[in-house]
Amino acid sequence: MAFDKSEVEKIAHLARLHISDLEADEVTARIGDILHLIDQMQSVDTDAVEPLAHPLDVVQRLRRDEITEKNRREELQTLAPSSQDGLYLVPKVLE
Question: Structural domain of residue 23, as residue ranges?
Answer without folding.
Answer: 5-42
